Every structure is written in structure tokens, then in C-alpha cells.
Amino acid sequence: MNAELKQNMNKLVADLNVLYMKIHHFHWFVKGPNFFTLHAKFEELYNEVTEHNDSIAERLLQLNEKPISTLKECLDLATVKEASKVGTDVEMVEELVNDLETIDKELTATMELAGDDEGTADLLLGISESFQKHIWMFKAFLGK
């Protein structure tokens, strides 16, 4: 595994860890007429993000590399930012769409770096497809 691929995969681990906490924040603090829908959707998504994060970290271990594993490392490396306020349900979904799109771009770039490592590329492709579906659904929620 080359250093750039390892760095990108660890960046994904970082972003997914921060995203996990952000989605929990949204899950806990969402209010309004969409509460029941979004509360359940956010729970579904943070559970999925946990599985994806674990899969990427375990892939690094399978390739004799070490995934980052501290909150400090995650916050230092992540592009996704922590939730900084309690916004409206619409603001939460808009922020989530932006974060999912950011991570999806990182997934695509990392797939390209994987080259002949079909196991890694396939893992990342599956995550990308899932995120693209969530992006589409959240944009539909927003009327976009």
C-alpha cells in the first residue's frame, strides 16, 4: 500500500468518525414537524456510518497498516467539521448533504489510488453508492 492511499483511507476514517458524532448531534437535537422522520433517519445513518468506518479501518489492518484511532487524530485529519450549533431540521439536512458529498468525493479519489487493489476499491465503491443514495434522498427532502 502506498503512503497516499493509506493517508486517504485514514482521512476517511477521520471524516466518518466526525460525521458519526455530527449525525448523533442531529439525532438528539432535531425538532419540529419532521422530528419523527429525521430522528429515525439519522439513527439509521449513524449506524450505517459506523459499519462503513469499521470496514475501512479493518481493511487497513488487513493490508498491514494502522488506522487512526484517537479523537485527536480524527479532528486533526478530518475535512468534515463537528456540529457547532443546534440548527433547524432543514439546516441539519443541508449540512449533512454537504458532508456526504465531500466524503463521496474523497471516496472516489481514494478508489482511484487503490489501483489494482480490487478489494479496497470495491469496498469504497459500495460505500460511495450508499452515500449517493442518501444524498439523493436528503435532496428530495429539501425539494432539490
Automatic annotation (TrEMBL):
Q: Name one GO molecular function term.
A: ferric iron binding
PROSITE patterns found in the cross-reference section = DPS_1
Which part of the chain is the Ferritin/DPS domain? 8-144
Query: Do you know which SUPFAM superfamilies this protein is assigned to?
Result: Ferritin-like
Annotated InterPro entries: DPS_DNA-bd (IPR002177), DPS_DNA-bd_CS (IPR023188), Ferritin-like (IPR012347), Ferritin-like_SF (IPR009078), Ferritin_DPS_dom (IPR008331)
Its source organism is Caldibacillus thermoamylovorans
Which family is this sequence assigned to? Belongs to the Dps family.
CDD domains listed in its UniProt record: DPS
Q: Which UniProt keywords apply?
A: DNA-binding, Oxidoreductase
* Pfam families given in the database record: Ferritin (PF00210)
What lineage, starting at the top, does this entry show? Bacteria, Bacillati, Bacillota, Bacilli, Bacillales
Q: List the Gene3D superfamilies hit by this protein, alphabetically.
A: 1.20.1260.10
- The protein's Enzyme Commission number: 1.16.3.1
Name this polypeptide is given: Non-specific DNA-binding protein Dps
